[in-house]
What we know:
Blueprint: H1 4-15, H2 22-28, H3 32-37, H4 47-68, H5 74-84, H6 87-96, H7 107-111, H8 118-136, H9 138-148, H10 150-155, H11 164-172, E1 180-188, E2 195-202, E3 205-212, H12 215-229
Antiparallel strand pairs: 1-2, 2-3
Amino acid sequence: MKTLTDLNKKLQVEFGIGFDDLSLLETAFTHTSYANEHRLLKISHNERLEFLGDAVLQLIISQYLYQKYPDKPEGDMSKLRSTFVREESLAGFSRACGFAPYLKLGKGEEKSGGRDRDTILGDAFEAFLGALLLDKGIESVEAFLYKVMIPHLEQGTFAKVEDYKTKLQEILQVNGEIDIDYVVVDETGPAHDKVFQVEVRVNGRVVGHGQGRSKKIAEQQAAQHAVEQGN
């Protein structure tokens, strides 16, 4: 696991952010499982910061949508916002920022693959925003999101996420039930940074391949490959 000092240097180099209160940064990356395993040390975990980060994220994204789409009704903007800030998206941003190696997890959570779990990574991203808000103010949070998140929203990367597993199932099962299996054929890399290779098989026949830092992502890529190949 990389150190807090390494993380602060990374933030300074890549995002121009230097925390004054490193305890906030440490808390943001401390999962409840780690705090529970070290109860005697009374270590703080990131749930309260996650609550704060979620609120400031909702505010900034809401303001962005309000200004970007002056003619959209409230219901449409709410749907867009929920798409942008869903767990899977936030976990993706957390991975893109390289946050996973800095998480402090309990031994059990570490062994079960928690370092690549969408829930944990998404929560850590929100907790980081909460810590940044307390340390630097809302302007810094906004600047960070406009550098890391908003460009993807501008490109529509997260506006329409295709569920290729469902799409493949709909295509293949149009004439009746068939067996669709997703099989992990290889795993590479250290425990905290694994890459999974997955095959999707239809009635035992391989129709698509995918890879990703989680089984879920690799399965979606395999399904996408199968759909695009017309298998």
